[in-house]
Amino acid sequence: MTSVKEFRVEREPTANTLGRGAFVFTDDYSVFDWGKMPDEIPDKGASLCSMGAFNFELLEDEGVPTHYRGVVSEARSASDSRAGRDDPRDPDTADVVSLADAEEPPTEMAIELTQVPDLPHEGRDYDYDAFHAAAGDNYLIPLEVVFRNSVPVGSSLRRRTTPADHGLDFEEWPEGVVQLEEPIVEFSTKYEESDRYLSRREADRIAGLADVAELEDVAREVNRVVTERAAEAELVHEDGKIECCYFDGEIRVADVVGTFDENRFTFHGQQVSKEFVRQYHKRTQPEWVEAVDAAKREAEERDVADWKSLCEESPEPLDDAVVAAARDLYAAGTNAYVGRDMFDAPSLEDAVAEVRDL
Predict the structure, then answer these.
(1) What is the CATH number of the domain that holds 42?
(2) Phi and psi at residue 144, to the nearest 5°
(3) Domain count along the chain
(4) What is the tens place of the pLDDT at every residue in 237-280?
(5) Which residues span the domain enclosing 225?
(6) What pTM, to 2 d.p., does this model score?
């Protein structure tokens, strides 16, 4: 469980009511479940916040319920503070606006909050019954719903399943990328120390009161909206995931949707997502990547949750040129996706060319 967002609670949720709070997006990044890496990528937080807000507003236009309330306008909040008005961070007075009304690229997203009970465990044995006993009918569903529009080389799907499992007419996975006519939807754990994919039956048990068929329908609708928007920016949406909350009998899309961290996009065949940084680490720091894989395997064999304490290597900082290229890729990609020059950045074509040369 890793995150590069900070979380601020303004009003706690209760068993019967939603709370209020905000995500504060940082410039940190994480790969391979490591957590905070040695570097920061400038403007990354604002890029993810902007894309996430844009997608939530698209989903709401399509009638998809979400926990999104708007973005916090930093310029306006600062102006209010200087003028001696009420605390701009107070949930009743903060200047929460739509993305179009934000005067600068935002780094804070206002959201409604649901309950997140503790998930007790002994080793790798997690007690979901205890989670749901505490959750009632107002909780963050402890699943990630993954959707795939293609199956690239190296995808875990190739190791875990056969083409026949998905109704595909191949005896075995072909060498190249498989483009799917219909998305493949899977479920994985959210709060376990190492994510694992689940059978539909197990996902249904872990989801509690939420219905997995409805979760799948929501994921397919999110995938459609993001895929269509990406195509308008000449981006190909390869795969992604959603997280959802359950409140008052309704499934609502939560966390953040359709960003370069949660989803994979390509532009004329080049990755425009966090995957670029992952692949760069595989090429330049293979010893660390292999040590991470070995630590995860050892943790599974020993039935312990904390795999990171077993890792004998640590990642090294990126070269300055790589950090700069990553920044331009996030910023240029966001400009293209939202259809607005929110950042001073090269064209997406130039940013992609810069990455391709690394």
Answers:
(1) 3.30.470.20
(2) -110, 135
(3) 1
(4) 999 999 999 999 999 999 999 999 999 999 998 888 888 899 99
(5) 5-356
(6) 0.89
